[in-house]
Amino acid sequence: MRCAHEWRKRREHLYFSRMRYVADVLECAKCGEIRIKNVIKHPWSAVLQPAIGVFAGIFDSNGRILLVKIDYGQFVGEWNLPGGGVDAEKAKEAIDEQFLLQELAREVEEETGISLHLKIEENPILWPALLKGGEDLALPIVVGVIKDQPTKGETRFASLETVQKLAKQLPRSCLLGGYGGRMHRMTLRLLSYSHNRSYQQEARNALKILQEKVI
């Protein structure tokens, strides 16, 4: 049976092939069907609008960092920092940067069962990491040492040596993206904030080596 559409119209900016357009977007309140009309090319070039992810630097008492094994999708079996993408609909209600910490806490609880209470002044957001091409922006966030143990998923606390080994493993068992990839860079950057002084310095040295290879 066909839907008797009830259209709701909004004016939006759309981005295709690095160009910006303005169009009327009609969305049916009943079935969710979307139609686009009255498309006009915008005189300004497109502005990059990357997806945003937030990832946690959670440490144990030895300064090792928490990793989570991916259990679905094309990267199943690989290791990842706890976290994930920021929800686009929720982002519309964001007031300030605290929203990023709220999203991180939600992701961490969903993946590990660990409940976090994060504050801007206590949990610094580090320099962002980009996927090649700039379409995806990830923010590593320092959480610090926690006493609670993960209760969901397959997890491990990894030393810097383990992180380096995982980054060089074959796909399906490696650190997501492999050696020099974004997840590897973020993990090293977070380990440079570990309370383990040895990990701090070694992680900074490893990041420097990666940077020199890029240059």
Describe the structure.
This protein is an alpha+beta fold. It has 2 domains: 7-45, no CATH class; 51-214, Nucleoside Triphosphate Pyrophosphohydrolase (Alpha-Beta Complex), CATH 3.90.79. 26% of the residues lie in helices and 31% in strands. It has helices at 88-91, 98-112, 160-167, 182-191, 197-214; strands at 7-16, 19-28, 34-45, 51-59, 65-69, 79-80, 83-85, 129-130, 136-145, 155-158. It has a 4-stranded mixed sheet, sandwiched between helices. The chain has a 3-stranded antiparallel sheet with strand order 1-2-3, with no helix packed on it. The model has no long low-confidence stretch (mean pLDDT 91).
The CATH topology name of the largest domain reads: Nucleoside Triphosphate Pyrophosphohydrolase
Q: Please mark out the parts with pLDDT under 50 across 5 or more consecutive residues, or reply none.
A: none
Note the gap between the termini: 60 Å
Strands side by side in the biggest sheet: 7-4-9-8
